[in-house]
Structures are given as C-alpha cells and as structure tokens.
Amino acid sequence: MAPFDRLTNLLPGRRGAPLGPDGESLLGGLLEDPAVARALAWIERSGEQFTEEQIRICEIPAPPFGEEARGAYLEERFRELGLSRVHRDEVGNVIGLFPGTEPTGEAFWLVLSAHLDTVFPPGTDVVVRRVGKRLHAPGIGDDVAGLALLPALIEALRQGAIVPAAPLAFVATVGEEGEGDLRGVRHLFAEGLLAGRIGRFISFDGAGVEWLTHQALGSRRYRIRVDGPGGHSWGDFGVVHPVHTLARIIAGLADYPAPSSPRTTFNVGRIEGGESVNVIPTSAWMDVDLRSAGEAELSQIEEFLLAQTHRTVAEENRLRRAGRHPLTLTTQLIGSRPSGEIPLGDPLVQTAIGVTRALGIDPILSRASTDANIPIHLGIPAITLGAGGVSGDPHRLTEWYDPTGRELGYRRALLLTLALTGIASRSS
What we know:
This protein is of the alpha+beta class.
C-alpha cells in the first residue's frame, strides 16, 4: 500500500488551453453535432424518468458507514447501462468505465463522481413524498441529485451513440459526509483501478447550476472525552466534573479570535454525557469542528483547541477535589480534510466556466468541503458542481428537491464532459 502523501509523485501533467470567457466557440461545434443533438434531445424529454430514478435511489437508505445497499443498486445500474469493469472496491466505491474509452497507453482518466452517503442515521424514514413538483425526503438533494445524474449521463451518451475520445470513469463514492472523512475518494486516489491514473475529477454534489467549487475548505474534527469519578450532586459536590470541564473548554474556544481572512470558524456540534439531573457524570464528550480557508490558520486554531483542552483538564484536577480519581482526557481526531485550490486559469476551471456561461448562467466561484478536496490537495484539477434543479433544507429531515431547471444541469454535465474529452466516434 503506497502512502497517500506519496501520490503527489504520480500526478499527470496538465493539458489543454484555457477557454474564452463565453465558451461559444467550443460549444458551437458540439451543438452542431447530430449525435450530441440526439443526446441533448433525449435529456429534454426524459424528465419524469429522471425523477423516478432519483426517488428509487433516495428510498434506499445510505446512513454513515452503511452505503452498501445503495452502492449495490448503482453497481447494478452501471452494469445495465453497459459500463465495463464495473465493481465495488475495498471500501465500497462503485466504479465503472465507459466502454470504448479504456486507454492503451499512459492516458489519464476523467472521473465523474457523486457520493452515496447521507448524514442521516439508520432508521431514518427516507420515503419520498411528492407535493406538487417538489420531492420531500432526507437526502433527496444531497447527494441523490448528484447520484441520479450519473446514470442519466451514461444513457445520454448511449442515446447519441457517442464515444468520448479520452478515458472516462463513473464513480459513486462512500464516506463523503461527516465522520466518513472522505474515505471513499481517499481510497480512489491511493489504491485500486484508477489510482495514479486520474487526470481530472468532477464531483456532482447537490442541486443547482450556479456554484462552481474549485477551492477546498480544510477542516479538523475532534472528539474530546473527559472521564471522572462521578458522584451525587449534593453529597459529592466539589469533585472534578466532566461536563463542567467541557463547558470551560467551550468557553475558551468561544473567545478565540477567529480571523475573517482567511475565513476561519469553529463549532461544537454535539455534546453528551451524564445519567440524571442529580448525578455528577462519570464521563462526557463533545465533537468539535474547526474549518479554515488557510492551512496555517487551521493548524493554529487546532493547536489552540488542544492546548486549551489539556490546560483546562489540568486546572480542574488541581482546583477540585480529585482525590484518587482525577479526570482523564481522551482526544480523538475523527476528521481531517485538506485545503487548497485549483487556479482559476486551469483548463478544467476555465472550461467549466465557459460551458456554464454558454448555457446562460454566470457561475459563482466558491470554496467548500467536498470529495474534490482530496484531488485539489494533490494538485489534480478537480471541481464540484451542482446537478441542476433546486433544493432546500440540506442535512435536515425536511430536505426537499424541485426538478425545475434540472435539464440545464444535465445538459451542462454532458457538454462539459465532451468539451474536456472530445469525441472519438459517433453513429449517424
């Protein structure tokens, strides 16, 4: 197993020339191609088919670390649609290669990806309710919208009988959300069929067409646990106290002067512990999320949190009645996502901007935490795009998706793919 960090030695050179600001010269040729026109026409008339696919995918639960059933469905769909070498890798990513594009030399792959997992725990009701045009269900937008695009894009290429001129792979990843810590995409770049052979990477994540993410938002996530002797709230008052200690750590973090540039944030997203209102807890823990657009600032706030935590526990043990049972501290890094960015002038970014503008949308360049963090950190051109349509309430049980404008997202995905790969052959 090659260490992840050593993948930087395997990166392909960047190819291609930046696209003009409007993309019209590039898309003009594609839009005049009869095979591409057939593919686009199929997208325009297949809206209900796309909706049914999105509902089917959403109603297969995919809780954190429980993506197997949804992955099995996507694997079956990839086979039905004629992809080659379809398989699930060691961590559960579903991979399929577009037929006719497998390289014979050292060509590098364009990967089109979406993530399988949701933030919702096992047992969450994921049955989709239709209210007018809107689809209501947890995960229906993030990232079922992206997953539903993948089979649609494969079928659109088939409808046009188009074979891209460059190697093309479709991937549904595991572990994008929360404590999954991007484990699927990490594995994709470190091990297996595509490792060291990915030249460009596009993640379709959520709805919309306006946002174009080419900057990776770094994060560190910690679980901090404090254990003590516990006791009765009256009779043992004054002993070391896990919850009070966590509260003091949080108060110190709340006073941290987080810079606005590069933007840096912190959040205590979960805190648990204790048995009853009149019982001093024997343990308590919390999850802390630190984020920054700058790697140095992220390291700085991480160092502050850890120092504040150790100092507060030591003070509690010194000031309170610890006796033979002082507090013990456990800090666990449960997530580490790298930051970075692909330059605005990179051909992938420029082509995505040009195609989006040619379709009448002025893209909003952004920074976010997505599967693209890993290739961006490695210096591999990567972006994240929405899959079209409109959604709301992400990461909430009230999440919804409206397919209005979805075809525009699907059209962009097809045209961007072909703008990047070219066309090797098509049937008239």
